[in-house]
Model the fold of this input.
Amino acid sequence: MLWVRPALALAGATIAVAGCGASGSTAAPAKTSAAPVATTAPVGIDTTGPLVARSAAVVNAPTRIARTAAGPVGYREVGTGSPVLLVMGLGGTMDDWQPAFVAALAADHRVVVFDNAGVGQTGTVPSPLSITGMANQASALISTLGLGRTAVLGWSMGGMIAQALAVLHPAQVSRLVLAATQAGTGHALPVPAAAGAAAASADPATVLSVLFPPDQAAAEKTYVIGILRYPDFYPAPRAVVAAQALAVKQWIAGKDPAGRQIGQLRVPTLVADGTVDQLDPVANDRLLAATVPGAKLILYPGAGHAFLFQDLVSFLSAVQGFLG
Done:
């Protein structure tokens, strides 16, 4: 789950200082611009040459609208090569992907990011909102963009959508990377109440406290500065966030049919998380890896729900090796 970007917008640069035209698509309407923020990069990430250009391309990539069979979907894409679809978590937008993360993947891949149903320029899907409904919309995007068999990386709720996508549309998924997410079999531990409440807080510091451990202030600051580089801020509507939260609960409880079928997956799968993830107990990662046949599990010691940005260099290396 991730809805830090709306909270950060309230604090703006204070936190940062302290702490492709495809077939069937059209350009999206412009949004209100935000003030630019100074940039930084995670330790170990090259800040010169090609990565700088790719990071700028990520930040400045235009939002386009794919006219899919499941309604309009707002998306952006950067890079060339085999496709990788990034699926965002609860309450998040495309702007919650750290630019350096996307840019590094785009060095060897055509990376597509998009907004889930009801967020940004993406249309709604039939109620009640479900993980399956969002997965079907992601499938429609893959078809409209002509991605073919694509690697799919999902973070938190995005990992649930990725699982459902692979179950329901196996011909569209070549590999799965499931980051800080839960199985939908009904056996996963629920999101701890206190952590869930903190993540839903209107206070930016409280939200960030459940994404990054207390001793990871530098990684947290880098992440915040990175996502605030995107020029156009837009939040996920609160009603959509509430509907997503219900969909997540249904998934974890095993009430979404697709979630109960993940043991039938036959796609190379990488499961990863931090060992101190407050929103997704590590027992869930072990369960997920044990449920998906042949899945590989990587746990990052001392990392939280945003481990993929806290341990960005190490995780990117693992992902790039896994994708080939």
Summary: The domain at 4-18+43-323 is CATH 3.40.50.1820 (Rossmann fold). The beta strands are 25-27, 64-68, 71-78, 82-87, 109-114, 150-155, 173-179, 269-274, 296-300. Residues 131-145 form the longest helix (15 residues). DSSP finds 13 helices and nine strands in the chain.
